[in-house]
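Figure-free illustration: sequence to structure, shown twice.
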Amino acid sequence: MNDTILQAYARLIARMGVHVQPGQDVVVEAQLDQPAFVERVVEACYEAGARTVRVDWRHQPLERLHTRYRTEEALGEVRPWEEARLADYAETLPCRIYLLSEDPDGLRGVDGAKLAAAARHKRQVAKPYRDRMENRYQWCIAAVPGAAWAAKLFPELPAEQAVARLWEAILTASRAEGDAEAAWRAHNADLRARCDHLNGLHIRSLHYRAGNGTDLTVGMMAEGRFHGGADRTRQGVAFNPNIPSEEVYVSPRRGLAEGIVYSSMPLSYQGQLIDGFSLRFQEGRVVEVRARENQALLEELVAMDEGAAYLGECALVPYDSPIRKTGILFYNTLFDENAACHLALGAGFCDTVEGFEGRTLEECRALGVNDSILHEDFMIGTADLDIDAETFDGRTVPIFRRGGWAF
């Protein structure tokens, strides 16, 4: 892969992604797949003015071993030093970069109930610290090719060629070629214009319908506002949390969802694939789940905590998005969610509330932003998806027709 392009991608993550501020600390979380690129990201952060950059390495095969041999209690344990680190993050607010590369099937066959119980305990311990950090720090999720991930997507290619092909797909989808920063500024402006139009409608609810059986109505907060592209911290620092990103999204009002929705792509969750599934909602809560593959894991997901059965996000992505046009099913939520409209179970986003900067976390949740230790996106967009908005002044306005924007 061309070294100049990889350097530009690293700079994009450091400057447009987390937008490192002079003197700020950075924490990078990465698998062992692309150490040379992680070095480039670390250097790009220092060049942007970072005070310190630390890398936390992960390795999926070790996660399999831990899950197999540890007791549920040991697997979910949070040691005092780990909690002290969370407290330090909440105090110092480092930028967080997450470089995804794991095998979508890397934890296939592990004890899902055991893994879910351990994750539940860890997230409950971490949640108070994450609440303190809400909308106060910059973060970015991006991707690099892992050998196993590349092999799943391109099984017909030799290993080295498969990784190179996945690099090409990632860089193209991430608008990382050419003048990447200029491309992202233009892209952010386009997404902001979409959001401005939607926010001007003052939407009360969204009604989703598709030929696969989807028929779902989701209620909105009067104070809710669509976002897309760059976000801002409470301190006013702009950053792009997802590279790539094609969505405009809003947090719905908890308790206002009725009907059924069918998935349009597999969901990679905890290193396993959930496929062919549907969720039925009543009074905002999931009351029935069905899945052709890994239904038990989907049931564990929905039962993660009280808020996991409610929606935290409605995201609009046209079916002809650039990522869809690659013709690749990535088996990775970062990419697949940007190839189709999606919903998310679990935590909502307080920054989708008008005037969130002047509101407390509790005030945002009182308005209807869902609270959970979970936030899990799943894809629902199809080529025939129609979405209508009902506005607070009683109008019905088409938002999507046949999978694309109706305006």
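We now fold a second protein in the same way, so the two outputs can be compared directly.
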Amino acid sequence: MQTNVLEYLEQTLPRVPNKTAFADDHMQLTFAQLSGNAKAIGTQLHADGIYGEPVVVFMEKSPAAINAFFGVIYAGCYYVPLDVEMPAFRIEMILEQLKPRALICDAVTQPQLAQYGFQGKAYLFDDCIQTEPDEAALAMIRRKQLDIDPIYIVFTSGSTGVPKGILACHRSVIDYIENLSETLGFHEGTVFGNQTPLYFDACLKELFPTLKFGGTTWLVPKSCFSFPIKLVEYLNEHKINTICWVVSALTMISATGTFKTVKPETLETIAFGSEVFPVKQFRMWREVLPNASFTNLYGPTEATGMSCYYHVNRAFEDTDAIPIGRPFRNTGIILLDENNQEAPYGEPGEICIRGTCLTMGYYGQPDKTAEVFTQNPLQTRYPELIYRTGDIAHYNEDGDLVFVSRKDYQIKHMGHRIELGEIEINCGLYEGVESVGCIYDKVKGKIVLFYTGQVEKAELAAYLKERLPRYMQPNKIRQLEEMPHTPNGKLDRKALTAMYNA
């Protein structure tokens, strides 16, 4: 039985020692280099008495940063990824919460440490990997480790503005990688194109399957995502055949007419998630890549990545929502109504998740953890935790889950309960609209719609009057040059609200 994520690397290494594991435009690391460097880092941390505690990895996005993650795990610790792209105040708050004794940095981030008030010991990555691995010490660390020991903390934005650190263990990550790999059919020939920052759990889709199968991951430069043609050319140049991206990264390509100039020639597997994929945009991708597999993924960070999947195998109407499908093996989904009872089949309810996939909760915040990691109200005979996602869904006639909305995005307007997502979907259907975002001003009782694209506001308003009932009509429409997104690619509704209030 596998109990440690590093077993993926150790089992793959003898088979493909000289194959490139992780690469970008500046560095390529083979599996042999990855293993040697990770063991050196683990040895260095162990020699300094760092064990069973958080170790911050504050580096530029690179194969070296990924390598540092595995080195921290070899030391019997858990890594906390930070990045120079993160706002300074966020880095400061995270360091204040953790008060870490150890931090791994690079030549770019080392000079910045003083401004964040870091008081622990800083290890330069290039120095650490010169350490001679102590195999006996590493073996001793491994013997003490259990599969319930933590391996990382990733921080999400808290509702109060204070970041929440979500702690995951070996067992939940192994469970996720095994199920994801089976669902998407990864193999030794898989070449991933990574899109997300390394300080989000989304990158798990590439990191650990690369170790498990001996595949290769290319870290796609952030600059490419501002130039769709350049992005597709990058995929072709590196023969990338598998991408697991947020929807906005995909629609940025299809909505701007990129396929008229260049098409992805090597893509075979496309997984998407985090947002609803507008069917109009999805259809463009399907027409360009008729032989590729497309899979919709759903899941919260608190349940270690993704929890549900749907292989898109049929056509959809423009106003349909592509289902999020069914839970991974060994994952349980319960839909609870407002009375904590199971929602009748076909009726909406809050998605609640149970199983090995659940993370350990929020680091140092037991009260916050207890709010959403709760006893299963349907199980009264013994303790069983569920995670309450705050997402609303229902089952369709095929038995697949269909995402409806966030609880936060359901509004009461003019006496009617409205899903902001329904307004967004209808707006996105209009020819020339590229992206859409909708917010609600509770104080003034106004629905505010933002969009990008070469369409006049009056023209769009007239179209929506024909499609939507009066109580769903946006009270204000604003055209933007660019839709704001969070660092992991989701629509940034907080930024839209700030624009509206400015």
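Summary for the second example: The chain has a mean pLDDT of 93.
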